[in-house]
């Protein structure tokens, strides 16, 4: 009996592993196609600009709210942890570094990933189940060129832009709380910001944001294209795109942090 | 001419096509009939290269399209127009953009020229002036007509119709049938119509083929189809639940 359970367990694990390897392969093929079709897709620049609007401009309100409170919470937490150990004049310094290196890019990616990843997967998934993608192919229009490349490029370009915006809002949120609730003077906060602002921190954050943008676009497009069935399939694709984006953003954040701060920007 | 030989396709455990042979001669309209789920739409998708068969060949004017590279397949696809079962209009585009999409993508024509062609094709299907409408605001019949206008925008030599009248009221179904005949008269196209709507089939078809259990079990003209002794066709034409086709 135990042997039977063990055999079933091994078979299940093997099947899941093969599914996972297959999925990685299919994502790689989609990315390969998208890379190959990037130049032809640039002819339809309007499609890319349209997606930049949807992905970037459309996310601004959500990112504003999230960033404002992220900065505010960062100020409260920093003030609590500083208490009688670190002078409060370093509040601005801690906030700017934590925001532009980590909080800005990662939280923006998670928020935009939830919103945009879901939206791309749902849109492409619906197109798949209603034969719109077949219709494109029947019209000799490559769906990867027409649908995937504009979304992928727009995600890669717009995530750093939105991240810069998020950084500014979060620093402002920290400023408001620092000045009104913690008791740091505006001058001290701004001096702290300036004193510990390094361009390499900003570059590393923006590089991460570009990478995260690629992950969000890829997950949305891949799961959208992989949709099977009807409304249930679209729902599953949407969930998988969001979960996939969030998990990959956090895993790649760790990998990128090591690569960027231990090798590329190491002091 | 389209020549299909020994076409086989398995989807999961279901052998959907099991050695289908069919010829569609230049300029004729062949109607493929059969029960829902008999593989008619799968057959149609193979003809335009949307699905790859497990075995068999599909020749379009002598060129076997099975195994062609995507770029070569696209060259062949530009000679086809296809009307999908649910119309498959692009929701994010207007009616005019739907109809003009292939023209803009392939021909890089001047805007005025595209607009003129779009207006002309919409007029052919009786929807003149509807360019700015969104697909979501159209009725089922209008969606089919926009789908047809899109299918004929590039002056195709072949038009594939997947259940063109399904879900339409009898009057609108007749409008679509007349449009199919009109396209054949006006453009001289070769057409394949897949349907289980026999009233429509007899209006538009020059020849009939019946798909059952993955095989073509009958081919014949309209008269031969009406008068055949083939029990499968008889049961289907009479719409009877009693007979060799098990429900």
Task: Please render the helix and strand layout as text.
The complex is a heterodimer of chains A (267) and B (247).
Chain A: H1 2-36, H2 38-42, H3 45-55, H4 60-82, H5 91-129, H6 132-138, H7 143-182, H8 186-195, H9 199-225, H10 231-264
Chain B: E1 2-11, E2 14-24, E3 29-33, H1 40-47, E4 55-60, E5 63-64, H2 70-77, E6 80-83, H3 95-107, H4 111-124, H5 140-151, E7 158-162, H6 170-187, E8 190-194, H7 198-204, E9 207-212, E10 215-221, H8 222-227, H9 231-238
Helix pairs in contact in B: 3-4, 3-5, 4-5, 6-7
Short summary of the structure?
The complex is a heterodimer of chains A (267) and B (247). Chain A has 267 residues and is mostly helical.
Written account of the structure:
The complex is a heterodimer of chains A (267) and B (247). Chain A is mostly helical and 267 residues long. Chain A has one domain (37-264). Chain A has ten helices and no strands. Chain A starts with a helix and ends with a helix. The mean pLDDT of chain A is 93. Chain B has 247 residues and is an alpha/beta fold. Chain B has a domain at 2-79 and 156-238: P-loop containing nucleotide triphosphate hydrolases (Rossmann fold, 3-Layer(aba) Sandwich), CATH 3.40.50. Helix content of chain B is 38%, strand content 25%. Chain B has helices at 40-47, 70-77, 95-107, 111-124, 140-151, 170-187, 198-204, 222-227, 231-238, and strands spanning 2-11, 14-24, 29-33, 55-60, 63-64, 80-83, 158-162, 190-194, 207-212, 215-221. In chain B, the strands form two sheets. Chain B has a six-stranded mixed β-sheet, sandwiched between helices. A four-stranded antiparallel β-sheet of chain B has the order 2-1-4-5, covered by helices on one side. The model of chain B has no long low-confidence stretch (mean pLDDT 90). The chains are: A mainly alpha (267), B alpha/beta (247).
């Amino acid at each position: 009996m135990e042997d039977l359970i063990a055999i079933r367990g091994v078979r299940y694990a093997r099947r899941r592993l093969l599914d996972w390897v297959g999925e990685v392969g299919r994502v790689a093929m989609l990315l390969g196609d998208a890379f190959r079709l990037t130049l032809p897709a640039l002819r339809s620049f309007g499609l890319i600009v349209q997606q930049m609007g949807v992905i970037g401009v459309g996310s601004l309100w959500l990112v504003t709210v999230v960033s404002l409170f992220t900065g505010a919470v960062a100020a409260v937490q920093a003030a609590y942890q500083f208490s009688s150990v670190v002078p409060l004049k370093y509040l601005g310094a801690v906030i700017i570094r934590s925001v532009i290196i980590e909080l800005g890019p990662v939280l923006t990616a998670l928020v935009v990933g939830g919103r945009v990843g879901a939206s791309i997967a749902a849109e492409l998934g619906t197109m798949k189940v209603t034969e719109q993608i077949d219709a494109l192919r029947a019209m000799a229009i490559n769906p990867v060129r027409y649908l995937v490349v504009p979304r992928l490029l727009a995600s890669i370009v717009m995530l750093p832009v939105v991240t810069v915006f998020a950084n500014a809002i979060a620093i402002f949120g920290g400023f408001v709380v620092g000045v009104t609730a913690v008791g740091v003077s505006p001058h001290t906060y701004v001096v702290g910001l300036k004193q510990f602002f390094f361009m390499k921190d900003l570059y590393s954050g923006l590089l991460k944001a570009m990478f995260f943008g690629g992950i969000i676009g890829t997950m949305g497009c891949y799961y959208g294209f992989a949709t099977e069935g009807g409304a249930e399939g679209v729902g599953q694709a949407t969930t998988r795109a969001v979960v996939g984006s969030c998990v990959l953003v956090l895993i790649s954040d760790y990998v990128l942090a090591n690569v960027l701060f231990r090798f590329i920007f190491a002091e | 001419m389209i020549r299909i030989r020994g076409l086989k396709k398995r989807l999961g455990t279901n052998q959907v096509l099991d050695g289908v042979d069919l010829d569609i001669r230049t300029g004729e309209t062949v109607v493929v009939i059969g029960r829902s789920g008999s593989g008619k739409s799968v057959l149609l998708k193979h003809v335009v290269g949307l699905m790859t068969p497990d075995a068999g060949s599909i020749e379009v004017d002598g060129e076997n399209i099975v195994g062609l590279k995507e770029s070569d397949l696209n060259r062949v696809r530009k000679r086809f127009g296809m009307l999908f079962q649910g119309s498959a209009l692009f929701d994010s585009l207007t009616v005019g953009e739907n109809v003009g999409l292939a023209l803009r993508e392939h021909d890089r024509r001047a805007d005025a020229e595209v607009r003129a062609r779009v207006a002309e094709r919409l007029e052919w299907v009786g929807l003149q002036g509807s360019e700015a409408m969104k697909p979501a605001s159209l009725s089922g019949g209008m969606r089919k007509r926009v789908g047809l206008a899109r299918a004929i925008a590039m002056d195709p030599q072949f038009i594939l119709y997947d259940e063109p009248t399904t879900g339409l009221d009898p009057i609108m179904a007749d409008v679509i049938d007349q449009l199919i005949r009109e396209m054949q008269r006006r453009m001289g196209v070769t057409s394949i119509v897949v349907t289980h709507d026999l009233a429509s089939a007899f209006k538009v078809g020059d020849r009939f083929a019946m798909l059952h259990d993955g095989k073509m079990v009958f081919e014949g003209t309209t008269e031969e189809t009406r008068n055949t002794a083939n029990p499968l066709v008889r049961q289907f034409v009479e719409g009877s639940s009693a007979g060799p086709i098990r429900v």
